[in-house]
Amino acid sequence: MSETTSPAPASTPQEAEIAAALGMRSIVLVGMMGAGKSTIGRRLAGRLRLPFTDADAEIAAAAGMSIPEIFETHGEQHFRDGEARVIARLLDHGPAVLATGGGAFMREETRNRIRDRAVSIWLRADADIIMRRVRRRADRPLLQTADPAATVSRLLEQREPVYQNADLTIASRDVPHEKIVDECVDALHARLCGNGAAAHETRDGISATP
Ligand code: S3P
């Protein structure tokens, strides 16, 4: 269920260089629920003229039911196994921009596949931003708890040390989406096209770790 974004003007040399350097590899967005992986991923795909795929949407389509229904009917473990299979399949069909669910990168096998077949970007968001963005929606089974804020803190504690293994880290925050996309493009270009390939810090405190 890949979707190409609407036609965009000819890509800049920087964007074209990134697409060329990727070859068959994909760009994979990882990070917590509410970090903006799908929103940013869709826009980034448009900029790089790549198809965009949302892994959660693919899992739901493969199962013929929504994510909450999969959790309710089959349990989290079943969902995680399906998630790993779907991401493996999608990574075999690069290049694309792929947004993954917040728990996907926690599985070692999936991390290894992403390392081998993609460049990963951790969209890092703090607890306040996450809570503000997920509060109004009931489609995250893991947050259907008595104290969702405590659940988010616990998940952040468990997951951030693992998300840190992504190739690049971009701070997701309340600025226009295009600014975050610009930062992804700059970090990808630095990483893939070797202009000052060493780790760099930008004005906004965004680190790109080679
Ligand atoms: C999950 C995140 C969700 C979805 C599922 C589990 C998680 O995706 O995969 O509800 O474990 O953090 P998003 O990160 O796109 O919300």
Descriptive account of the structure:
The chain has a single domain, classed as P-loop containing nucleotide triphosphate hydrolases (Rossmann fold, 3-Layer(aba) Sandwich), CATH 3.40.50.300. Helix 1 packs across helix 9 (177-193), helix 2 (37-48) crosses helix 9 (177-193) and helix 4 packs across helix 5 (76-91). It has helices spanning 13-22, 37-48, 55-63, 67-74, 76-91, 108-117, 127-134, 148-163, 177-193; strands at 26-30, 52-54, 97-99, 118-124, 168-171, 200-201, 207-208. The protein contains nine helices and seven strands; from the N terminus they run H-E-H-E-H-H-H-E-H-E-H-H-E-H-E-E. The strands form two sheets. Strands 2-3-1-4-5 form a five-stranded parallel β-sheet. Strands 6-7 form a two-stranded antiparallel ribbon. With 210 residues, it is of the alpha/beta class. Shikimate-3-phosphate binds next to loops. Residues 33, 37, 56, 67, 101-103, 140-142 line the site of shikimate-3-phosphate.
Give the rounded overall mean pLDDT.
Answer: 90
The small-molecule ligands in this entry are: shikimate-3-phosphate
What is the correct CATH architecture?
3-Layer(aba) Sandwich
- Helix % is 40-55%
Topology, number of strands? 7
SS field, number of helical segments: 9
CATH names the topology as Rossmann fold
Percent of residues in β-strands: 5-15%
Uncertain regions spanning at least 5 consecutive residues: 197-210
- The helix/strand class is alpha/beta
Indicate the radius of gyration in whole angstroms.
17 Å
Q: Give the neighbour order of strands across the main sheet.
A: 2-3-1-4-5
How far apart the termini lie comes to 31 Å
Sheet bearing the most strands, described?
Answer: 5 strands, parallel
Please identify the top-level CATH class: Alpha Beta
Q: In total, how many domains does the architecture comprise? A: 1
> Which superfamily, in CATH terms, is the homologous superfamily?
P-loop containing nucleotide triphosphate hydrolases
**Overall geometry:** globular
Question: Topology as H/E string?
Answer: HEHEHHHEHEHHEHEE
